[in-house]
Amino acid sequence: MTRNDQTEEKLTPKQEDFITSLLTQPSIAAAAREIDLPDKTARRWLKLDHFQQAYQQAKQDRFTNALDMLQSGIGTAMETLHKHMTSDETPPAVQLRAAQLWLEQAIKSHEMNEMEQKIAALEEIVQERHR
C-alpha cells in the first residue's frame, strides 16, 4: 500500500462536511453546492469505498438516533391513546380511532412475538444441524 492509498482511507474534513451535507440536502448536487464542492469531485468521492462506508455508517447512525427519539415518546403516546379511548369527554369517533390504533398495535406486537419465537426455533434447528 502506498502512502497515497493510506491517506485515501481516512476522510478529509471536507469529505466529512460533504457527508453531513448529504444527510440534510435533497440531492448530491445540492449537498455539494452547500459546501462549495465541485459536482464532479462529489460524484468521484461517492465512488470511493471508504467514503461509501463512512456515508452508510452516518446514515445508519442518523436512523438509529431517530428511532431512539421515537422510542422515548412511546409511553406518552400510549397514555394519550388510552386517555382518549376511555374519556367520556372524547367524541365517539376519536374514541373509536384510538381503540382501533390500540388494537392494531397489540396485534402487531403479538405477531412480532410469534415471529421472534419461530426465528429462535429455526436458529436452534440450524445450529443443531451444524454441530
Give the termini separation. Answer: 40 Å
Oligomer: single chain
Strand runs, count: 0
Strand-and-helix sequence, N→C? HHHHHHH
Q: C-alpha Rg, in Å?
A: 24 Å
Which range best describes the helical content: under 10%, 10-25%, 25-40%, 40-55%, 55-70% or over 70%? over 70%
| Uncertain regions spanning at least 5 consecutive residues | 1-8
The structural class is: mainly alpha
The structural domain count equals 2
Q: Report the sheet-strand fraction.
A: under 5%
Q: Specify the number of helices.
A: 7
Summed over residues and divided by their number, the pLDDT gives a mean of 92
What would you call the shape?
A: flat
Largest sheet: none
Question: How are the SSEs placed, and which strands pair?
Answer:
Layout: H1 3-8, H2 13-24, H3 28-34, H4 39-46, H5 49-72, H6 74-86, H7 92-129
Helix pairs in contact: 2-3, 2-5, 6-7
